[in-house]
Amino acid sequence: MEKNLKKSVIIITLIGFAVAIRFAFEFLYIRFWHLLGVSQDYGFLIRTLFLGVVIVIWLIGSLRSDNPYQKLPWLLIFIFEPFVGILLFMSMGRSFKHSLRYIRRPLIHDDAYMTHETRYQDREALDLKPEDAPYRNVFDTAYKMAYHPPYAGDTRVTVLKNGEAFYPDLLAEIARAETFILMEFYIARSDTRGMEVFECLIEKASAGVQVKVILDAFGSVGGDRVSRKVLKRLKHSAVDLVLNDPIYFPYFNTRMNYRNHRKIVVIDGRIGYTGGMNLGDEYDNSIPYSYYFRDTQVKIEGAAVKSLTSLFFKDYYYNTKQHVTEIGYYPDVKVPGTGVVQVLQSGPDSDQAFIRDIYLKLIFNAKRSIKIMTPYMALDVETLTALKVAQSSGVTVDVIIPGIPDKVLVYKVTKFFASTMVAHGIRVHQYQKGFCHGKVLIVDDEIASIGSYNLDNRSAVIDFEITALFTDRPAVAETVRQYDHDLRISKTIDPHSWANRPLPERLFEGLLSLFTPII
Question: Which candidate among 30, 260, 298, 449 keeps its CA 20 to 30 Å from the CA of 279?
Fold first, then answer.
């Protein structure tokens, strides 16, 4: 209590200090120009120019970005409100790779966390079936980017629709755990489903099973997420609970913006899960009077689970500085599969948007069809261009977006990009049954990706993300079947009526789209 009180006092003091500086600046500004006898209009102009020059120089030097488009929102904010812009930029605009937390954890950029993953040079004889051979270059490129190897014939993938399928399966596997459980989520709630999982974890930890849990502090703490009481109970149990980047004072803190959006579960090194679902009642539609929630998770069994394990321990090291290298976390487990499975990861700790770039490669390689489901859509130039080129090349491109939004302003941005896509002949569909939260990409009905990656700039370069890329035949077929069903209950946007929506609505969407690089 005393510690929290001290933090609150510090926060209030800093806010008061910022406000005092603002008023002091305005007072001195008025007095200075009054003494010189300069018109307030000219004074305002000179002040704006002075602040603008200083801020632009600082902005260009601080962002260190090759993409000038990412600087535009900050310039707009600084022009309209420099002081607010500075505070926002200090917390949201600075490079993650220049943060002390990243610099002081060299094992991340040395990829030391991947010690026990099979190196791809040891798998030159990767036995690809004829139908998988066209994607060898995709797997090679993904490995060169993120170093997680492809696994062929030794991993099985099961596609789980909604929490109704995911949670019972997860709880059953937790009950069977014998040695360790690793769990990482962006959002967790201490509601019915969340507490079922937490109770099982506490019970298993008490029985001697090693249980390590990473929850993102922004996504899982406070409000309607995990209560302080439950957090305290977890910490006082045998569960090793880690909060990813706690936020004590958001301004002047780069950790506010760079969040861990991954969803990872590993049980005994033999079974893993990833996808779009977090821990909460909404994912299995058990909340009365709430809209229907559509999402997808994948269960991975076999050798590729090693990639989930190594990625979990990368995030664990980032938050604790503990480099876990025990070989016991990486058992040699093989489960017969019918295709290739490869885990992809991306985040602000890299100069390259790995998942985005592999998506681009898949889109450009498409011969017949591209099927996408995304809850949020704020496309960068590269992705939008790739989809336009694919459509112009005769590839059928379908994109499912929500018909019912969960975030109104973000949905406005999604609708803006839907307008752009529809105008270029891309078919965009609004899911009618409820809110679709799944993050799915299917190319030519042969290869699929399911994970935490949204089709927006935040997932591409700001947040830490994960996805599973697979050609496992039964899993791809099930993904296609679910997608086609979702397509049938979606409403296809009519280009003519969409383009003739009220002008103020379209202008507002366009205005919000200017800020897509930072939201």
Answer: 449
Query: Nearest 5 degrees, angle CA 116-CA 118-CA 119?
Result: 110
Question: For residues 350 and 138, which has the higher predicted lDDT (pLDDT)?
Answer: 138
Residue 496 burial class via C-beta count within 10 angstroms: exposed 0-12, middle 13-18, buried 19 and up: exposed
- Write the CB contacts of 57 (distance below 8 Å, at least 6 apart in sequence): none
* 334-344 pLDDT tens trace: 999 999 999 99
pTM, full prediction: 0.84
Say which amino acid occupies 506. R
Main-chain dihedrals φ then ψ at residue 247, nearest 5 degrees: -110, 115
Q: Which tokens is 506 given?
A: 């379209």
CA 242, 247, 253, 257 torsion: positive or negative? Answer: positive
Residue 335 lies in a domain: yes
Distance CA 203, CA 374 (A): 36
pLDDT at 3: 44
The residues that bridge with 184 in the sheet, in sequence order, are 214, 264
> Residue 454 falls within a domain, yes or no?
no
Q: What is the pLDDT at residue 198?
A: 97
CA distance readout (Å), 198 to 134, 146, 385, 467:
43, 32, 44, 24
Neighbours of 98 (CB within 10 A): 11
Beta 151-152 vs 447-451: how paired, if at all?
A: unpaired
Domain span at 193: 111-138+150-340
CB atoms within 10 A of CB 96: 18
CATH of residue 264: 3.30.870.10
Six-digit token string for 43 = 């004074």
* Helix, strand, or coil (residue 68): helix
Q: Which residue has the tokens 């992809």?
A: 344
Three-class SS state of 158: strand
Work out the angle between the directed axes of helices 408-423 and 381-392 (0-180°, nearest 10).
40
Strand intervals (E) in 162-217: 180-185, 210-216
Structure tokens at 227: 């209560």
- The 10s digit of each residue's pLDDT in 415-457 is 999 999 999 999 999 999 999 999 999 999 999 999 999 999 8
Is 252 within the bounds of a domain? yes
Q: How many domains does the chain have?
A: 1
